[in-house]
Amino acid sequence: MRPGPTALSLLMLGLLLVQGAHAEILRIATEGNYAPFSYQGDNGSLAGFDVEIAQALCQQMRVDCEVQAIVWDKLIPSLESGQVDMIVASMARTAEREQRVAFSDYYYQSHSVFAGKAGIAADTSPGALAGLRLAIISGTIQADFARERYPQSPLLLVAHQEEAFDMLLAGKADLVLSDTINLLDFLQQPKATGYDFIGPPLLGDTLSSKAHIAVRKNDHLLDRVNRALEAIRLNGVYDRINRHYFPFSIY
Predict the structure, then answer these.
(1) Which pTM was predicted?
(2) Rounded to the nearest 10 degrees, how much is the dihedral formed by the CA atoms of 190, 169, 88, 198?
(3) Which pLDDT score, from 0 to 100, does residue 203 have?
(4) Which domains does the chain possess?
């Protein structure tokens, strides 16, 4: 005997509920204090280029995602412990990090540069910056670079980017070293009037200009992420997100 319409509807609803109960959810970590890549939006939710890229990848992979903010130096430990499944936080690939995590293909590229009060230094050679206080996020490639190349400049290591900017504006730091695009967002704000890029973008073996997504080593998720990255590049989703935040391509 065939089930009636009501029974059939209930059966279909039950199947949907069972499928929903087993829907894959990816837990994604971002830094959360690194505008315009990740920051708290006006409604209190996370926003930014990294956040939208993460959401686009989840949509492409047909999975649900939960994006959460984790301070920079806790990102890799949170991945290793299983607290999150992947990191989308403008992370550069380094030999040290590759011992702990696996990296996707790159999803944007930039350079590192100093910012401070206009005219504070004639150039950015180690001698010219001797004695100047450098505010940099702890655990970053910029911090490693400054520690090696600028031994005569006191390093003020901070937990997140806004703290570095606050120290600069308060006169507690002389320069900030960070990603060019991140600094551009800061320098365009009214509070940064009188501040500018100091010197050209820096070059060095320890500075990488490409950002990657991190997953646990030997995780099958890596292949899926790379395929999804390629797909959103080809279908125009990446370009749409890029245009939302930048007037030029950062790929």
Answers:
(1) 0.80
(2) 90
(3) 77
(4) 24-109+210-245 (3.40.190.10), 112-202 (3.40.190.10)
